Amino acid sequence: MAESIASPIGRILAIDDDARLLESFGMCLEGAGYRVSTATTLQSGLKLAAAQPFHVCLLDRNIGHESGMDALPRLRELAPQMRIIMVTGHSRVDDAVKALSEGASDYLVKPCSPEQLRIAVARQMDTMRLLDKIERLEREVEPGAAVDLQSKSPAMAQVLAVARQVAATDANLLLLGESGTGKGVLANAIHQWSRRAQAPFATINCPSLSAELMESELFGHAKGSFTGATQSTQGRVSNADGGTLFLDEVGDFPLALQPKLLRFIQDKQYERIGDPGTRRADVRIVSATNRDLETMVSEGSFRLDLLYRLNVISLTLPALRDRPEDLEDLALGFIGRYARSYHLPAARLAPEALARLRAYPWPGNVRELQNVMERAVILCTGEVITPAQLALGTQTAAGGDAVPAAVAGAPITINLLERRHIEAVVAASETLDAAAKTLGIDGSTLYRKRKSYGI
To answer: What confidence score (pLDDT) does residue 356 get?
Structure first.
């Protein structure tokens, strides 16, 4: 498990081929209370980033004959939460803009004073703590707090109306729709609209856990019940007693564990791993998936009786391309949110930028729009967000068909190529496990990439 970003001692990774510079970085930052690890080659730096958690990385623009800029995507993959400060000996605006657009958080020109270095690192640490706090607040909405979800789209407005109606009951709900359409947001809203709003709302991301870890996470375990179980845990079911449990991507719930989930839904009873005593919990189940569960039932990878129990009421969230009436309001909402988060002015959206957003097909739905607007807020240097500050993966031709960015005059990014490759492999594979094996990555990495790309 990664070290919490709220840790009072920041962990810093510095990658530079200048050993003397690394020594000075270490002395400066360790004197300020940070823990510093250094690497003189890009390969050793990547190994460190993969082996242990870091809060901030100081990355040289050129490391020997290798490019730190080219390593940005790999570092972002290894440590998504780590803030990256690009360090260079050349003060060029185009380099700074490219570094920021590729995922760097800041840009530092060397030689820099110890005070400049400490301020740059401290700024990133403050940003991480702020984002962590925002994430926790969004994840743990104050019990009973009002949730105001509205939509100008008739299709989405109908979904919200039914959701409010069924929230007053204890019926289990199944939320359907493409990845990134906001199923998790709606699940939280249903909890807040229900009589269970004063009780906890707990979430389990099903694809991120093996069957063994899933059972422990769901039902808990007794101390000593397996290797590494140094203390007892209650599990999400116990913690959510009286409230709501959200099973995200339930189509990836382990088949071997489905009978135990079915039993809990039917009888409200379960056992912790290593503890023979039967326990009870009153938990409402809201689940979500972008997969065809009926097809999975026919293929034998999902139980029909469990589907019946989960699918008392089903709601299908429309894709963003099918609710164009909401695009502008959503974009402006994200601009305001991230302007507050980063302490930046809330820039206006240029008409040309809005037109570009409307022409884009949004394969990643609302999650992709959120990511695009966050980056636009960061890259905006004036009072208006322009089309140039919208990092869209594809652009739309006059006829309405999506075309590669290179055809429209801009290069295709590595991230876009990776995303398309993952989409093709997942579409051609029978299961996500099979797709992960084809891609040469584990299931957890595939899950993170699908979430990141809105697949």
So the answer is: 92
Q: Is residue 184 part of a domain?
A: yes
Q: What is the pLDDT of residue 331?
A: 94
| Whether residues 208 and 346 fall in one domain | no
Tell me the HSE value of 262 on the side-chain side, using a 13 A CA sphere.
14
Q: Give the whole-angstrom CA distance, residue 203 versus residue 136.
A: 13
Cβ partners under 8 Å of residue 108, min gap 6: 58, 85, 86, 87, 88, 116, 117, 120
pLDDT, averaged in runs of 10, over the chain (455 residues)? 43 90 88 87 86 85 83 79 83 70 80 88 83 57 56 94 95 94 94 92 85 86 77 86 94 94 94 89 95 94 96 95 94 90 85 93 90 87 88 46 39 64 72 75 77 74
Containing domain of residue 431, as a range? 422-453
What residues form DSSP beta bridges with 334? Answer: none
Peptide bond into 361 cis (omega under 30): no
Q: Does residue 358 share a domain with residue 307?
A: no
Spatial CA neighbour of 192 closest among 146, 137, 248: 146
- Assess if residue 197 is contained within a domain: yes
* Residue 181 near residue 365, CB atoms below 8 Å: yes
User: Which of 146, 162, 244 lies closest to 200 in space, CA to CA?
Assistant: 244
Residue 305 lies in a domain: yes
184 phi and psi, to 5 degrees? -65, -40
Indicate whether 229 belongs to any domain: yes
Contact 246, 188 (CB under 8 A): yes
- The answer to whether residues 385 and 439 belong to one domain is no
- Residue whose token pair is 């993966």: 393
